[in-house]
Amino acid sequence: MQKCNENAANRYSYVGEVYNVGERKRKEEILNSLPTEWSDLHKKGYIHIHDLDAYGLTYNCLTFNMLKDFPYERFKDMNEQRKILATFEYIKKLFADIGNEQSGGMAIANFDNEIAYILENLGVASNEDNKNTIANAIYNLIVWCSETHTRMGQTSYYVSLNIGLAKDEFARFIAFTLIDEFEKAGDLIFKPNIIFKVKGGVNRFEEDKNYDLLKKSLLCTAKKMIPTYVLCDSEPNKNVDAEKLAIMGCRTRVVADLFGENSSIGRGNIDNISINLPRLALEVDRDFGKLSVDEKIAKFIDKWDSVAKTTKDILLDRFEKVCSRLPEDFPINKKHHLWIEDFDDIRQVLRHGTLSLGFIGLSEAFEVLTGERYYNNADVYVSALGFVKHMRDYCEFLRKEYNLNFSLLATSGELISGRFIDMDRTEFTPSVQIFEKEFYTNSFHINVDSNLSAFRKIQLEGLFHEICNGGCITYVELGEAPLGNDEGLLEYVEHAIKSGVHYLGFNFPKDVCNGCGASGVFDECPVCKSKDITRIRRVSGYLEILDGFTKGKKNEEKNRRAN
What we know:
Elements: H1 14-33, H2 36-43, E1 47-49, E2 62-64, H3 72-75, H4 80-99, E3 106-108, H5 111-121, H6 128-147, E4 159-163, H7 169-184, E5 193-198, H8 211-224, E6 228-231, E7 269-276, H9 277-287, H10 293-323, H11 331-336, H12 346-350, E8 354-360, H13 362-370, H14 378-402, E9 405-410, H15 416-427, H16 454-465, E10 474-477, H17 486-498, E11 503-507, E12 510-513, E13 519-520, E14 533-538, E15 543-545, H18 551-559
Parallel strand pairs: 2-3, 3-4, 4-5, 5-6, 7-8, 8-9, 10-11
Antiparallel strand pairs: 1-7, 6-11, 12-13, 12-14, 14-15
Helix pairs in contact: 4-6, 5-7, 6-7, 7-8, 8-17, 9-10, 9-13
């Protein structure tokens, strides 16, 4: 049984129900404890404080520093088969334990190279028996990520495995096997999120050693929408060591660090707050409707500046409260040394993380201000791009002013796409056009019903990627699974690299018959005529069953059109 909660990954359980009661109480207590000016912004729908129940208790997400302190000694007396199995059990336990010590996603930056390195250092030979055992262990990890819903008694763990830069044959075997086993696991297994790093000289071109791995990855994407693709040669990524790039959760990007080298490894996001752009635009239109478009945009920016200043104060307060906790409050982190620094001094560790200022509904905001969707008018597009640059400039100012890693996040908006519009509809004229579709568009994304070609969409969204350094993604919407069309997907990848896209994904509807397992797009199975259908869609960065989507995301899914 599924319930439509704040998170499509939730599955109903008694423990989860009890947790939800406590979560709601905790959120209420937090809001009541904050200054009224802060809490009112959240309550009235100007902002959304994400993971409010975690406020002052923990950080958001982390890319594991797997090789820093792996416990080789624990496994040294085992035979090779047991070493393999014990390694993967250790990794699953890390995901489970850390997943209940933080509020967000977990990632391994180079799953292929890191697993190969660990196994080689354990003395595991790359023979056929061991390879079979590794394949079984990888399969079990995949199924565990997809079907285990024990986080908070109801939720799957947000696991991201980055691959593609395999240095040797053992690492190549790990990468090939991960994709193989994910594909063979069937259509109803749709986690973890696998991210393929596309890099010239490694896998991007025919002459590259891992080009065959990229092609295999694309064929898997054509069936299951996974992997997604980090484009290491694109403008936002080209000056970063590809091995040190990683995606956490649905799009989080942590790279620049005021206190060390640019890297995702051993670092994470501390917290994030998203600003409701359409509400600010609606207020301007209501109060200053007779002004010129340029004047209204100026008023809009002024309103954003005011809200962003308070948002900054909340982010800083949350950071300070987490830093005031004791290392003993993070026993798993303290034990396993997965951050860039050990958990002896919380502030010393978490200063490496990011404080993210997010946003939603750029398209709707500029439609209210100008009467045009920003991607249909060159002048409005320039204004929208300029406004996002303004937000990023403010984050850069905060970095210098507070000596902390502030970043601009293109929010995924799973919950707030519906929450914000429901609140705004009660205060503003119900006939406003942006209310008709009953959801706000994620971050800077072009509307899902734009009817633009995929190439045009990629080109227009690409310029936003370098600005949104806290994480973003561009999706190509397809009408059906492009089975076997790896060449077509590769064209999109190449175009995205040249357009400045940092992170790229492919979406298409996938319906699976629960009777015979047939897949496609249908209301009645064309094979066995069953109407018992599971519908798998991308919600906000990850795949889930459509029945569990929030109301806003269900409405978005109805409006999606192929590019």
